[in-house]
Amino acid sequence: RKEVEQDPGPFNVPEGATVAFNCTYSNSASQSFFWYRQDCRKEPKLLMSVYSSGNEDGRFTAQLNRASQYISLLIRDSKLSDSATYLCVVIANQGGKLIFGQGTELSVKP
Amino acid sequence: DVKVTQSSRYLVKRTGEKVFLECVQDMDHENMFWYRQDPGLGLRLIYFSYDVKMKEKGDIPEGYSVSREKKERFSLILESASTNQTSMYLCASSAMIQNTEAFFGQGTRLTVV
Q1: What's the CA angle centered on B78, arms B25 and B112, to 5 degrees?
Q2: Could you give the CA distance from residue A67 to residue A20 in angstroms, rounded to a whole number?
Q3: I need a surface site. Which of A59, A64, A108, B22 has the fewest CB within 10 A?
Q4: What are the residues of chain B with a beta carbon less than 8 Å away from any beta carbon of chain A?
Q5: Do B96 and A96 make contact, defined as CB atoms within 8 angstroms?
Q6: Residues 6 or more apart in contact with residue B108 via CB below 8 angstroms
Q7: Smallest CA–CA separation between B112 and chain A, in Å?
Q8: What is the full per-residue pLDDT of chain A (110 aa) written as tens digits?
């Protein structure tokens, strides 16, 4: 079993739609959680951290469920510019090792 | 402006060559990472380092080695390049403190012919 697993993509949605991505992790001692965004042929960049109480940044909401070991990302009112690959990232409990999910591709259409 | 810089954007090497990929960060980060990214497989960790001269194997270390002689520089070495090492290589760095962002270099697309 992979340490971090994400929904298989691609997700194709119309502009204005709400889309949700889920990610599960296997190490119950994991400490930090993030969502990164990667545009085509570019490096990944931080979209948002995920806090235990859940957090929101504009149209983006991230949630963490430690009991079930999953994190989620909700995007409301999708824009064409949201088209990208979204990567779930977990930091293991030792030494800050970053573990990535395989990524979920989102394509927002007019 | 924080920066992680990889020495090359594109590289073409021959099978059997020794290849050096260099990564430099200017944020005084303790942690540095090397990943490779392949379609359908996501980012896979090759090696990481949490201090000078310290290294740990990631998920796919076979065929690679690393060097961290100075805090700001982390080198990935392909001892004898093979065609199955054709990939996008990404370097990242982060601070040791919890919940901190990792920053990536722009990537090196390596083709082994």
Answers
A1: 105
A2: 19
A3: A59
A4: 30-31, 33, 35, 40-45, 48, 50, 56, 58, 90, 92, 94, 96, 98-102, 104-107
A5: yes
A6: B6, B7, B8, B9, B10, B11, B21, B88, B89, B90
A7: 19
A8: 788 999 878 999 999 999 999 999 998 888 889 999 999 989 999 999 998 888 999 999 999 999 999 999 999 999 999 999 999 999 876 667 889 999 999 999 99
